[in-house]
Amino acid sequence: MTKIIRVNMTSLKVEEEEFSNDWIPLGGRALIDNIALREIKAYVHPLASEAKLIFAAGFLSGTAVPNSGRLSIGGKSPLTGGIKESNVGGILGQKLARLGIKAIIIDGKPSNNGLFSMFVNRDGIRLESAKELRGLGNYELASKLRQKYPKAGVASIGPCGEMCMGAATVAITDMSGRPSRQCGRGGIGALMGAKHLKALIVDDRGAVPCKAIRSDDFKDDVKAVVAEINSNPRVAWVRSLSSAGMIAIASNRGSLPTRNYTMGSFDKFENISGERLKELAKERGGSMGHACMPGCLVKCSSVFYSADKEYLTSGFEYETIGMMGANLGICDIDTIAMLDRKCDDYGIDTIEIGSSIGLLSSINYFDFGNNKKAIELVDQIGTGSLLGRVLGQGVVVTSKVFGIDRVPAVKGQAMPAHSVRYLKGLGVTFATSPQGADHTAGFVPDPLTTDGQVESSKVAQINAMIIDSAGICYWAFLTGKNKLISSLITNFYGIDFREEDLIKLANSALLAEREFNEKAGISKQCDRLPAFLETEPLAPANTTFDVPYSEVDELFNSMS
């Protein structure tokens, strides 16, 4: 039996209910969207007792499909005030799915200042006091829990989550037990902190494997997925250079946000590139081709060591290097890795914080390339100084506190490390996605032209919804392979599910997000990018975002 777990943190009671057949094959992001629209009052404060935090495995998680173990966590974002789903790798998604858990829905909050952990295994769920974990960073916490629960996966918050900062993350352990995978966007860690939940611990030992109804046909589909991944030349490229390989590409073409989004190329990009990471991995004993989840064929991550050959991070991704490196004018890869490690440990989003620190350059409080100052500011965030608490609430709050009107955010969320003055279709996604500025909401790689970008963004957002709902990793390059994904659903669940049904599911989930946001006061009039993207030409391409908003506004109309 598949089930939903409901946890009330006020009464500390746990209940189970059977997963409704009406919701098959919902999972991941689409399942969160449906639960949020049905159960969360859109007007409540995100940190209120009535708000809910939802963990949801993908509809293919726990199966033999490669790269399908990603997990979605979501609710109402304290950063945007709208709906938010953050998607993450690591080992937790598969473990929940193997236990037959489609979702964990958490509401309420303790009446006192208690702090709790939640342990899940085949025998059930129990809540335990976590007072001894209070204030711990994610790395020390994961180490302690690994000693107590050596086979478990962990989702946890660091000090920033406990302080309910708007940019707080939820850390997920990888196959080595390290909390290097982050649900980074939207302040999901603050939702977990507001529930006084420090950690979710999942042990799936003894669980019954997820079995397909039409097992022989499903096995054939899995073989087709394996062939699709292994035959894609981009897989070998990302395995060799990790997502950091995008640094050189983005800088050379002019889409890498540099020095507070004032340029599209970084003159010292070679110092922070995927090629540089690979060189240092060879020198220091790190590695490229690291897998964060079981069943991963792509192995897109890198394990990075310091000059002293001490482990720093195994989640050193393009977005972090772009926002903590080029956007801050920092060209020392060791400094960026240290910033990444600190953010992972404190539990704070590197994209949002890279943007917030970059914003301080406009009031002369941060000088580009000042490594020491960047580290100091991240430490202030992690320790909760007054300035740190401002920065930890994200770029919009930071702009309000310091009176800055050039704000690189959409719907309250900082723009990631892609210039939409160059990648204009991605700009359409940033403007229209109910999730706010988020590259994972529908990436459009077509450069410069305005032609067809609204339709390209629409297709990309539909495909992103499918991938996030399935629990499939973006770097498996299965985006758009909807006929194959619908066949996997048909044979795993034993239902007749066609490609058009999959598109309909994605459309419905996107419209549910849109409806939630409208109820929360985020109307279609908010589907706009910051004005400076239209008025400041970005070197070296010297282009602005100029897709007509009359066209942009039609994206969701065509989905209805």
In short:
With 560 residues, this protein is an alpha+beta fold.
Describe this structure in words.
Helix content is 38%, strand content 14%. By secondary structure, it is of the alpha+beta class. Strands 2-1-6-3-4-5 form a 6-stranded mixed β-sheet, sandwiched between helices. A 6-stranded mixed β-sheet has the order 8-7-12-9-10-11. β4 (71-76) and β5 form a beta hairpin. α1 packs across α17 (453-470) and α11 (333-346) packs parallel to α13. The model has no long low-confidence stretch (mean pLDDT 96).
Indicate the radius of gyration in whole angstroms. Answer: 22 Å
| CATH superfamily annotation of the domain at 3-202 | Aldehyde ferredoxin oxidoreductase, N-terminal domain
Strand content: 5-15%
**SS-based structural class?**
alpha+beta
Strand arrangement in the largest pleated sheet: 2-1-6-3-4-5
Low-confidence stretches: none
Mean pLDDT: 96
**Shape category:** globular
Label the CATH architecture of the domain at 3-202. 4-Layer Sandwich
Major β-sheet, in short?
6 strands, mixed
Helix content: 25-40%
Count all strands and give the number: 17
CATH topology heading of the domain at 3-202: Aldehyde Ferredoxin Oxidoreductase,  A, domain 1
What secondary-structure arrangement, pairings included, does this model have?
Layout lengths: L2 E6 L4 E6 L9 H12 L13 E5 L13 E6 L6 E6 L3 H7 L2 E7 L8 E6 L2 E6 L8 H11 L4 E4 L2 H4 L7 E3 L8 E3 L4 H7 L2 E6 L12 H16 L2 H9 L4 H8 L20 H11 L2 E4 L10 E5 L5 E3 L4 H7 L8 H14 L3 H10 L11 H13 L2 H7 L2 H8 L6 E2 L2 E2 L9 H9 L20 H18 L11 H12 L5 H21 L12 H4 L13 H4 L8
Helix pairs in contact: 1-17, 1-19, 6-18, 10-12, 11-13, 12-15, 13-14, 16-17, 17-19, 18-19
